[in-house]
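> tool_call: predict_assembly(chains=two)
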Amino acid sequence: MSPSVSDADLSVCDREPIHLLGGIQPRGVLIAFGKDTDAIRVVSANAAALLGAGPDALLGKPLAGVLPHGLLARVEAGAGPGPVTVEVSGQRCSALLHDSDGLRVLELEPLPDEDVGAEESALGAVQRLVSPLARAKGTAALLQEAADAVREVIGYDRVMVYRFHADFHGEVVAESVREGVDSFLGLHFPASDIPVQARALYTRHPVRLIADVDAKVVGLVPPLLPGTQRPLDLSGAALRSVSEVHLEYLRNMGVGASFSVSLLKDGQLWGLMACHHLTPRKVSAARRQACEVLARLLSLQLAAEERGLEAAAQARRASLLNALVMPKLGERTPARALEAQAPLLMELTGAHGVALVLGASAGPESSPLLLGTTPSAEEVRALVAWLSERELPDDVLHVDRLGDVYPPLASRADVAAGLLAVRLDPSVPHFALWFRPEVARTVSWAGNPNKPVRPEPGHERLRPRASFDVWREERRGASMPWSMQDLEAARALKGALVGVVLRHAEELARLSRELARSNAELDAFGGTVAHDLKEPLRGILQYSSFLQEDFGPVLGEDGRAQLESLTWLARRTHGLLDDLFEYSRLGRLDLSWEETDQQALVDDVLKTLGARLEEGRVEVRLPRRLPTVACDAVRIRQVWANLITNAAKYQTAEPRWVEVGFVGPGETRPQAARHASAPYLFYVRDPGIGIAPQFHEAIFELFRRLHPAQAYGGGTGAGLAIARRLVSLHGGALWVDSAPGKGSTFYFTLGEGPRS
Amino acid sequence: MTPLLLVEDSDPDAEALMRIAKRMPLPVPVVRVRDGENALDYLYQRGGYADAERPVLILLDLHMPGIGGREVLATLKADPALRSIPVIIFSSSVEVEDVDGAYADGANSYLFKPEVGPQLQATAEALHAFWFKAARLPVSQAQEPEA
């Protein structure tokens, strides 16, 4: 009965030289001899059982004198590919040979009864193991098949596939158990359960067998090598005894024998096939080797699977990125494109929630786009503010304990224990944020390994449940760590986004260049072209007036009428050019906003139009005083002037009137203005000729006239286009409600103020 | 007799002004040149203008092909020998840059060239009333620059 293990022992686990424990398991005999002389230098204390002579008699003797003739030669020849079956003292044994500390180390293991005579070749076992693997579809099925196959070969009660996570904590991801044996599936255990040096050893030497956890360790003779003054290095020995702590752990689990094979991927320890038997049980070297081959094949298969998964993930990422960089209609900003790809975005890094803070969703006033399970918009905004103050190497921050670095969210481990943040733009605080909840919430373990199979005073800590709880405690407030792939995906997204944003910026730059160019062209139009076009018209007008002055009397009635028509046409064209010029300048207008008394504006307009209104016998109706709102007074005066002039102009029947009014906040709005949300709605109404519905938009087009040029005072058709442009520059709208013969009502609204 | 120099590329506008000047009548003759180059030749008595008389007043159009009004103005106002001659800009442009720029370059006033018809007559009358009745024009020839 081994002594119980103390906490202190546990804490030194990491430093225990497990390859120099200086003992072997009693299921075989170890002999180390010189490479040249073949003189025996080290021998296990149990040698007599197999070799008929004890260490004292054997040490210093040539090996050839101890072993049957030709045995060593056979082992030498076969030890590369695997164990060689030999007969020693009438017992069939498997022989293994390796080098250590400058010596050759021979290990002889008597074969278990079931393997004697079976002569099962490793290859045959592998054949049996491998065929199901080839059928498996997907990683989970593959691991399950492998676990079942290994259990069949070694006949153990429980075969688990452990997978190491990025932080080296382990998880049981597949399991094959005999009926009635506790399941450990889903168990997570802390990284310390398989300490660093053990993991290193497992990487170099993939197979370990503890055939009996209660077996007495067999010492080596001599215990220390004369040359090194330390025990023979047993790293590569199949018979190596293991740490007492590990044995106690196994005993506490109710395990009598343990066998494990490393799963390596690209030379890195990916996981273990860990096998337990509730009673002691040997596994022959050949079967061990079969499992090792299987593990290698499984690793290759896993690597292929992972590459496949990676390829699939890549493809998904590519399609996501593709969706980002191929905006439809050329309309979509990166932000909009990302929003449309929300599910993909979450999947990209296996997060439970995503927050996007970019474009329109950035800034102190706006709401970040939240998908899945995330902190609140306000919390995200605060987090972004904090992030934008920090130096982020490569523009990426990933933590699995956000609360440690960012206390405001320490209490939100349920949502945001883990954060993967990517800064998308160096100049503005635009981020993609992925959130993960604390892992304890996402992992449960159905098993009940607390049930002591063999009740005995053992250290409480050394139980799977305790391990699981320790691991859970370790991970309290922490999420699953972000893997390399997660980070890669996030960086790829950033790269793509930067491309998109740049492309978008380029697009914007191109557009603004074009805009600048067309503005310049308009400017040129406004300046030179208008001047050059108007010049000849001025000439026509001048010469017409000279003609009038000099030859008026002799021209006669017809001549004078023709001259007048000529003058009228020239003036009209001149007027059109003036309007076009004005319209072209509107786009570059800077409005000067101020609180403006609309009543004063309208009064001023009426004063200017007074003579014309009187002449046309048009009554102006003002139901109530107009309010004061913010606008560019000069421009809105122009709008009022245009609308009132039009209203007065397009009337034939008496009595003629124009009504100027507004609808205030909270007042009932007419049907035609239900959609307008601005607080004030202004209108100009007339009982005139009206406008057919099909022209309700057309009248706002530049130079679009519905009536002959000379009718109704001959407008150029630019007035309403200019008025609408002015109103929309204010962030408002101008529209008409009218029907032929029913009069017209022109409505307009104004925006809130200068658009930043 | 020192003339009024009219720098105007548009024939009809020039003719209209000449007609008005004749009708007023203006106390000084009007000499018209059709672009900036000729204006400078006239003022510096170059080319065909060797005998050109120093004008008492210049009426200067801004937008002309080749050397524009602004260049003529800047040249004149930078020249001590010529800068005392009042220059009145007579242009159809209402652009702020044109108006402010002309004053910045030393224009003495800026008249908007009105629509054809009665307004032109009114503008011409105003010009006549101010410069030839109310205002005093420089009498002396330009100061020789001190040696």
